Structure formats: structure tokens, C-alpha cells
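A.,

Following up on our hallway conversation. C-alpha cells first:
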């Protein structure tokens, strides 16, 4: 953790608090003081110090009228400290306690963003990615028309692309090894579940080539026709037209 910032030290000195209470820089501070310290610490990039001040606030002033704001700021502090799992928990805690609060859309987006940051590389297990897609989708539905919903929708689209990429990488793995039946299964997952992504036309081209390699020309023709009809402006459709396989 970084040492207390000048903002914290200056406030403590001004209140005559340093040097008493065993060096506790927070002893005697009000909830407003602690909140202001946390804001200053975050502004200066000291997220860990902000977390400490806010946790002290929650312990010492459980009935403070601005506790919802402090809870949201605590979640943000954990997020900025790259502790996304704890940030997600704090955002969820806020929503469980203050569901009707005007800051609820921000907390919902915060949970979405925290889970999105936990989403791993496409080649790894995608448990957090799937959960993030669900949570971000809830923000889109629950707060439709807001900037929070727009941001969540963008994050959801990116996460869906990650999921599509995982399936496409699996398909390509089998395709390169000429295990075409397995490749087709994974290519089809991309087409069926992630048709809005740019990987869908790539997957259809993979299905076309796999079926041609096996000798299933009728199925290859079906994939070709779907690619040309559903994604006519894609590079993959242009490739098929250029190769003379569209007849």
C-alpha cells in the first residue's frame, strides 16, 4: 500500500490528530472527513488508502446518511486497485442493500465492468465471461435508455466476441488436424450462438471447407449459400465469389 497522501496527512495535522491514538491517522475523524480523504486518495491514484479510509468509515459510522455513496466509492476503490473480485462483491452488496437508490445504475454497471475485467483469455475457462454477459445484459434491460445501459451493451458485445472466439479456436484446432466432423460442430456453435460477430461468416466458411474436404458437397453448398445470403459484405463471402465457388 502506498503511504498516506499529502491530502490525508494535511487533514490529519490540521485537526491535530497525528501523534495521538498510537499513530492512527483516522482517530477522531468524522464520516465526512473520511469520505473526503477517500475521494482525495482516489484522485491521487492511491486506491488502497481510499479503501482503508472507507472501511474505517463503514465500521465507525454505520448509520451515516451518505453510506450508499460511501459503499459505491468503496467498490470503485477496489476496482481501481485492480481487485475486481472484491469490487464486484461490493457493487453487489450495494445493490442488495440499496436497490432503489438513484446510484443503482452505476452500481449495476460497476458489477458488469468488474466481471468483464475478470474475463480470461479466450483459450481459458470462460465462467466469468458467461456471468459477465448475463450481468451486463441485465443492465441493458433494467436501465434501458441510460448511458450505463449503452456502456454495458458495448461490454456485452465484446464479451460475446470472446466466447465466439473460444469456439472458433476449438474449431480451427480440429480443422488444422483434418478432424473435420469435430471442426464442424464447433464452427456451428459460432454460427448458431454468436451470429452477430465477425467470426460467424468465418465459421460458415470453415463449415463449407470442412464439408468439401469430407466430400459432403450438398452440406458444403448449404453453408456457402448461407454465408452469401446472411453475410454478403463479409470478406469470406468475397473470397467465395472470387474463387468461383458461388455457382
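Then the amino acids I'd put at each of the 247 positions:
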Amino acid at each position: 500500500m502506498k503511504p498516506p497522501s499529502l491530502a490525508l496527512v494535511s487533514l490529519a495535522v490540521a485537526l491535530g490528530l497525528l501523534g495521538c491514538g498510537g499513530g492512527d491517522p483516522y482517530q477522531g475523524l468524522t464520516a465526512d472527513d473520511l469520505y473526503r480523504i477517500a475521494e482525495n486518495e482516489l484522485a491521487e491514484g492511491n486506491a488502497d488508502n481510499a479503501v482503508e479510509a472507507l472501511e474505517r468509515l463503514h465500521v465507525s459510522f454505520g448509520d451515516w446518511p451518505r453510506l450508499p455513496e460511501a459503499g459505491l466509492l468503496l467498490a470503485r476503490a477496489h476496482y481501481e486497485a485492480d481487485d475486481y473480485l472484491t469490487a464486484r462483491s461490493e457493487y453487489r452488496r450495494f445493490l442488495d442493500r440499496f436497490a432503489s437508490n438513484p446510484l443503482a445504475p452505476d452500481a449495476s454497471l460497476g458489477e458488469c465492468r468488474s466481471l468483464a475485467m475478470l474475463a480470461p483469455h479466450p483459450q481459458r475457462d470462460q465462467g466469468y465471461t458467461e456471468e459477465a454477459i448475463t450481468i451486463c445484459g441485465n443492465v441493458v434491460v433494467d436501465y434501458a435508455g441510460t448511458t450505463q445501459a449503452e456502456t454495458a451493451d458495448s461490454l456485452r458485445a465484446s464479451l460475446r466476441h470472446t466466447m465466439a472466439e473460444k469456439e472458433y479456436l476449438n474449431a480451427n484446432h480440429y480443422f488444422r488436424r483434418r478432424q473435420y466432423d469435430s471442426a464442424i460442430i464447433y464452427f456451428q456453435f459460432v454460427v448458431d450462438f454468436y451470429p452477430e460477430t465477425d467470426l460467424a461468416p468465418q465459421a460458415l466458411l470453415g463449415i463449407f471447407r470442412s464439408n468439401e474436404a469430407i466430400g459432403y458437397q450438398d452440406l458444403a453448398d448449404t453453408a456457402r449459400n448461407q454465408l452469401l445470403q446472411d453475410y454478403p459484405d463479409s470478406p469470406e463471402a468475397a473470397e467465395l465469389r472470387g474463387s468461383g465457388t458461388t455457382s
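The chain is about 70% helix and 0% strand. Curious whether your intuition agrees with the design.

B.
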